[in-house]
Write a structure and sequence with these properties.
There is one protein chain. This protein has four helices and 30 strands. It folds into four domains: 3-61, no CATH class; 73-137, SH3 type barrels; 154-221, Roll (SH3 type barrels), CATH 2.30.30.40; 227-374, L,D-transpeptidase catalytic domain-like, CATH 2.40.440.10. The two termini are 40 Å apart. The model is unreliable at 4-15 and 18-41 (pLDDT under 50). The protein is globular and about 55 Å long. By secondary structure, it is mainly beta. The protein has helices spanning 16-24, 28-31, 39-46, 342-351; strands at 3-5, 50-54, 58-61, 73-76, 80-84, 93-98, 102-104, 107-111, 120-124, 128-131, 135-138, 154-158, 162-166, 175-180, 184-192, 198-203, 210-214, 218-220, 238-243, 248-253, 256-262, 268-269, 272-273, 279-282, 285-293, 303-312, 319-322, 338-340, 362-364, 370-374. A seven-stranded mixed sheet has the order 3-2-21-20-19-30-24, with helices on both faces. Strands 17-16-15-12-18 form a five-stranded antiparallel sheet, with no helix packed on it.
Length: 378
């Protein structure tokens, strides 16, 4: 088995031509160049699968600032995954993990002879290894509930592997939905149950229902995390590029690459061709959260509350957005949309136009940031 431990090393600034050459190689040299960095650090960084050009010369993975005492965990996204005694499907099966099982991620391995485009495996302590494609990197972080919610509501993000929403405050009430890690939701009120526990009232933007979620499971997103990135760059000098053959997104400022992320674009299925179409577009409609159900083109037949950081570029609903139902980027698999990790989608949401003020749920304008989708079939 050709295997090495995961590590990240930054790269110097590249010309546009060299940058595209790098992306054509599947950005492997950014993902898996060598040994050497601290395990806890690179586990946190890997979750974003995206990089920014910092200080004019160094490529660095985007990663949320985290308390390293908070254990890195994995949540099973598929109905069932198999754990092996080594990072290979040829290994001995040691355990089955069902959907929403949560386990500690203690190491990350890159195994070159994995029969998949995604060659990353997670180690679950001393129990075994699972392939990363169906595992969402998560943490369990509890929050101090807000005493007051401003009129009009605020954006909040789930900070635990999952939390259940109910139609009334209280765990003995009727179940509504399960909200997953890094999904975003619009909180309109804080209330208390009979035991005095705080619950957030969450507005469903699609059905206009109100659900109740334990307040300590959601983090109110501060306004400084919703500011426009690179405001000094003229709008006409910002450009997005999605390269379908390489499944890579690149953001440019005045033809200089400043951001890159792995993506999963639209694919062909038995029930139709949902390939993301090449061409020129614009991110004209944005919202920080969306309940996507069948017909919204996130995942055919799915019912997905709290899809985070959406930047639409077609009137039919094709968009960039964060994804919590798979972790298998680098190959087409969606029903038209461009899937990113939630952290990558958030960066893109903040960098593109139109700008969405913190107190607003969405903005819709005629034009935004220019997008060029390259490759594939027109």
């Amino acid at each position: 088995m050709n295997e090495r431990r995961f590590s990240i090393r930054t790269h110097p600034s590249l010309s546009r031509r060299c940058f595209l050459k790098l992306s054509a190689l599947g950005i492997g040299s950014l993902l898996f160049p060598s040994r050497g960095q601290a395990r806890q650090l690179h586990l946190a960084e890997f979750a974003s699968q995206a990089w920014t050009l910092e200080s004019g010369s160094e490529w660095a993975p985007i990663a949320r600032a985290v308390n390293m005492e908070d254990t890195q965990q994995g949540r099973v996204q598929d109905e069932l995954v198999v754990m092996y005694d080594r990072p290979s499907e040829a290994g001995k099966k040691v355990k089955h993990l069902w959907k929403d099982a949560v386990f500690p991620i203690t190491d990350v391995r890159f195994v070159e002879d994995t029969p998949s485009h995604n060659k990353v495996w997670y180690q679950a302590g001393g129990e075994g290894f699972v392939h990363s494609g169906s595992i969402q990197p998560v943490r369990t972080v509890l929050n101090e509930p807000a005493a007051i919610i401003p009129e009009g509501g605020v954006l909040a993000e789930v900070t635990v592997p999952f939390t259940d929403a109910f139609y009334k405050p209280g765990r003995n009430q009727m179940f509504a939905y399960r909200f997953y890690y890094e999904t975003t939701h619009w909180v309109i009120q804080v209330v208390y149950d009979e035991q005095g526990a705080a619950w957030y009232a969450v507005l469903d933007d699609k059905w206009e229902f109100v659900y109740y979620v334990p307040a300590n499971h959601l983090r109110i997103v501060p306004k400084e995390e919703l500011t426009l990135l690179s405001p000094q760059v003229p709008p006409d000098l910002k450009l997005l590029e999605v390269r379908l053959p390489e499944q890579v997104l690149i953001a440019y400022e005045a033809e200089r690459p400043v951001f890159m992320a792995r993506v999963a674009t639209g694919a062909k299925f038995r029930d139709g061709d949902f390939s993301t179409k090449p061409g020129w577009y614009s991110t004209f409609h944005k919202r920080s959260s969306r309940h996507m159900a069948a017909g919204n083109l996130a995942a055919n037949g799915y019912d997905l509350p709290g899809v985070p950081w959406i930047s639409y570029f077609t009137e039919s609903g094709i968009s960039f957005h964060g994804t919590f139902w798979h972790n298998n980027y680098g190959r087409p698999r969606s029903h038209g949309c461009v899937n990113l990790t939630p952290q990558a989608a958030k960066w893109l949401y903040r960098w593109t136009l139109p700008y969405v003020p913190p107190e607003q749920q969405m903005v819709y304008e005629e034009m935004g940031t220019l997008l060029h989708i390259i490759g594939g079939e027109g």
